[in-house]
Amino acid sequence: MIVQWYRSLPRFTRFWFTTTVVMSCIAARFEFLPIQWLSLETYWVFVMGEWWRCITSLFAYPIDSSTAWHFMVNCYFIVQYSGKLEKGEFGRSPSDYLYLLIIASVLANIGGFLFGFSYLMDMPVMMVTYVWCQLYKDVTVSFWFGSRFKALYLPWVLALFEFIFIHSFASLVGIFNGHVYYFLKYEYPRELGGKHLLNTPRFLKRLIPDVYGGRSGVFGAPPEGSYNYTPQDHSDRSWGQGITLGRN
């Protein structure tokens, strides 16, 4: 059952989820490797030349009794929203989704250096969630304590809870990153008649060719029906099913 579920995850979501769990557990939970070696630190990156920290800090997360729940929620969001974007809007263009993740990683590193975040997991997770919520902004989602609201507000609710309980504004930076990506990919070309500034590089297209016959959005325009999406009645669903969440 678990193996079948794991294999059903799209490849980049599966890699993201697996690398996050393995690296965090090895470094933080089982202490096979000091997690401080994997964090993003300006001195160690720019002075000592340890550039791998720009990558490892995206996946490694310090797990202890106070952060374990937050870590599991982030992993749930990777599976839910990264999986939905990769299978849906980017179903025909896996290279476009990989490019999204690369952009998310670069922006997360910039945010980490600017605001002093040592572990960057929150920012790409929130960026991917924000993009999905913008594409399906009128979908009704469920949150804790039976509250229900449109997906448009979900990232802000999550960021508020994170700030209250963890005293971190990393998710707000992730929302900003997601808005930059969404604006440049969808709104700027479609509403303002601008150029497609986020076209996937040709070498990625050659490395990971498009898949024909699936469903995905046209680059530079929202997926067909995303703005007029009419969800089914999910009022009887709870955390972990369909589009409902608790960080959903």
Structural overview:
The protein is mostly helical. 55% of the residues lie in helices and 2% in strands. The protein contains ten helices and two strands. It is globular and about 50 Å long.
Radius of gyration: 18 Å
Low-confidence sequence ranges: 214-248
- Strands across the major sheet, in which order? 1-2
Terminal residue distance: 22 Å
Summarize the structure.
The protein has 248 residues and is mainly α. The protein is built from 10 helices and 2 strands, in the order H-H-H-H-H-H-H-E-E-H-H-H.
Topology of helices and strands:
Layout: H1 2-8, H2 11-29, H3 42-47, H4 53-59, H5 68-87, H6 94-115, H7 122-135, E1 140-142, E2 148-150, H8 154-166, H9 170-191, H10 202-207
Antiparallel strand pairs: 1-2
Descriptive key words:
248 residues; disordered C terminus; 2 strands; globular; mainly alpha; two-stranded antiparallel sheet; 10 helices
